[in-house]
């Protein structure tokens, strides 16, 4: 049997952290506990919630499946999808010219790129529900306000990612077209956008999924869609109807994600 | 002409003339600035000092519009083919006319005017790929892609062609075919050519004149018939 003698070059299994790293870990833990305290985290409440949740479940099940209720909620869900699709499509279309201005080294100078990216950052920083509140004030209650909220939210999201996608395309085809004497706008239309198209499709489908999820809650602030039914259900303690709404939302969102995934594979294929 | 990237010199004191209808081979080891020199000649990147006179115009003094008009008379064939992968072969060739016909109608073969479609099909026929016009560019082999890139470069009937290691990414057989085709076409049309190559045999066979870059200087400028392979190998030592 051979003994494996430790050498002076053998490595320790665990490296002792430096004093600064140790202080960093401690600081991180303090921040986490501070946030939990601010969020009102309570183990006592967690422990006492199952009976109350069970009570809600008892009162919510079975869901309300009356034909009249299903018909009403079904039409509201159709309206929700209309808001989502219309808002996402308008948002995606508007995102293309916005992204052209935001993308560095394409058609606009650095000052324009920076300004547009800052505006897109602001749009993304404002939650979609806040945009819905703004548009309810601007255009009144109803689905139009919801559609505008989804559209601007989509511009904030797709504008940024479309710009990044265009910056990341292979520069070779663009250089070859530039060498033929093509204008910048022709080069972008013929080389950069087709090169980024798979990423555009993927991002757009994700934006549609996001729009469907968002549109289900815009009704909470009066911006149309099925969200208002959820609010009324809880306000009137009509938990079976509220449960029907929740289940409808879940089914539609999961279905949209499945269709989107299928479309992504069909359109983009294996390669991106 | 000289070119530097920041403080780092790429080449300096490069000076040569290109006669009408002449083929010039540009050889030299990796990093000697052959591709950079081609880009400077086309005005794709500015030279750090000196000037380029192309087709009677000084590129570094030209406005954007003048530069585009000048580039519309030249063509570029790159090592990586640089086709737009998801578009049809015919659309890629139609794009070669964008310098002469800017605008929406040359963004796709579906929108292109009849005359442009005919010109693009004729260019494809000359490279032997007319039957592939509707195929997606990313469904082609390497040799076929390079032939389409050649069709795109010649569709606008350029006066000068630049080729940056046109067969470097191809297997030897496809590379020979592409070089043979490329030079048959340019000789037929009397087009001037500047091409870079690591293949000494190609430089001597296809070039009328050979320029050799080494240590950032033009070390060789001689007619191909006066040179031997050994003369060029010296540039790589």
Model description:
- The complex is a heterodimer of chains A (272) and B (237).
- Chain A is mostly helical and 272 residues long.
- Chain A has a single domain, classed as MetI-like fold.
- In chain A, 76% of the residues lie in helices and 0% in strands.
- Chain A has helices spanning 19-38, 43-60, 67-102, 110-125, 128-139, 143-167, 171-179, 184-215, 227-235, 239-268.
- The longest helix of chain A is centred in the first third of the chain and has 36 residues, at 67-102.
- Chain A is globular, with a radius of gyration of 26 Å.
- Chain B has one domain (3-200, 213-236): 3-Layer(aba) Sandwich (Rossmann fold), CATH 3.40.50.300.
- Chain B has helices spanning 34-42, 64-71, 89-94, 114-126, 142-154, 172-189, 200-206, 229-233, and strands at residues 3-5, 8-11, 23-28, 53-54, 57-58, 74-77, 160-164, 192-196, 209-214, 217-223.
- Chain B is of the alpha/beta class.
- Chain B is built from 8 helices and 10 strands.
- The model of chain B has no long low-confidence stretch (mean pLDDT 88).
- Chain B is globular, with a radius of gyration of 18 Å.
- The longest helix of chain B has 18 residues, at 172-189.
- Chains A and B meet through helix 7 and helix 8 of A and helix 2 and strand 6 of B.
């Amino acid at each position: 049997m051979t003994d494996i003698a430790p050498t002076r070059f053998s490595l320790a299994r665990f490296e002792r952290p430096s004093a600064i790293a140790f202080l960093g870990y401690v600081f991180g833990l303090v921040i986490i506990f501070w946030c939990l305290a601010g969020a009102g985290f309570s183990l006592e409440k967690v422990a006492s919630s199952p009976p109350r949740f069970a009570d809600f479940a008892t009162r919510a099940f079975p869901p309300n499946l009356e034909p009249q209720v299903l018909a009403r909620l079904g039409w509201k869900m159709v309206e929700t999808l209309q808001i989502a699709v219309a808002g996402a499509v308008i948002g995606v279309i508007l995102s293309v010219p916005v992204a052209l201005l935001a993308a560095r080294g394409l058609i606009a100078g650095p000052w324009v790129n920076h300004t547009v990216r800052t505006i897109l950052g602001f749009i993304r920083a404002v939650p979609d529900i806040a945009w819905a509140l703004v548009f309810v004030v601007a255009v009144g209650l109803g689905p139009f306000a919801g559609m505008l909220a989804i559209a601007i939210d989509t511009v904030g999201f797709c504008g940024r990612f479309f710009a990044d996608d265009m910056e990341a395309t292979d520069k070779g085809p663009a250089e070859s077209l530039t060498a033929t004497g093509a204008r910048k706008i022709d080069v972008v239309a013929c080389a950069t956008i087709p090169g980024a198209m798979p990423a555009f499709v993927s991002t757009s489908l994700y934006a549609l999924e996001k729009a469907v999820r968002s549109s289900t809650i815009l009704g909470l602030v009066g911006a149309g869609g099925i969200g208002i039914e959820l609010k009324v259900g809880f306000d009137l303690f009509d938990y079976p109807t509220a449960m029907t709404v929740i289940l409808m939302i879940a089914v539609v969102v999961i279905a949209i994600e499945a269709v989107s995934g299928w479309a992504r594979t069909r359109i983009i294929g294996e390669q991106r | 002409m000289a070119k530097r990237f920041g403080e780092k010199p790429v080449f300096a004191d490069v000076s040569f003339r290109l006669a009408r209808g002449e083929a010039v081979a540009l050889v030299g080891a990796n990093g000697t600035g052959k591709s950079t020199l081609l880009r400077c000649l086309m005005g794709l990147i500015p030279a750090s000092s000196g000037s380029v006179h192309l087709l009677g115009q000084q590129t570094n003094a030209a406005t954007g519009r003048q530069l585009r008009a000048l580039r519309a008379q030249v063509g570029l064939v790159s090592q990586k083919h640089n086709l737009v992968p998801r578009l049809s072969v015919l659309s890629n060739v139609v794009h070669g006319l964008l310098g002469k016909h800017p605008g929406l109608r040359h963004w796709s073969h579906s929108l292109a005017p009849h005359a442009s479609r005919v010109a693009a099909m004729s260019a494809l026929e000359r490279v032997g790929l007319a039957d592939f016009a509707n195929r997606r560019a990313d469904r082609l082999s390497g040799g076929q892609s390079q032939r389409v890139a050649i069709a795109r470069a010649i569709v606008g009937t350029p006066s000068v062609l630049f080729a940056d290691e046109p067969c470097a990414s191809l297997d030897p057989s496809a590379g020979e075919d592409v070089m043979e085709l490329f030079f048959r076409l340019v000789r037929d049309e009397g087009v001037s050519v500047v091409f870079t190559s690591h293949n000494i045999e190609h430089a001597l066979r296809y070039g009328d004149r050979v320029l050799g870059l080494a240590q950032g200087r033009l070390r060789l400028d001689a007619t191909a018939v006066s040179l031997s392979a050994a003369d060029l190998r010296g540039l790589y030592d």
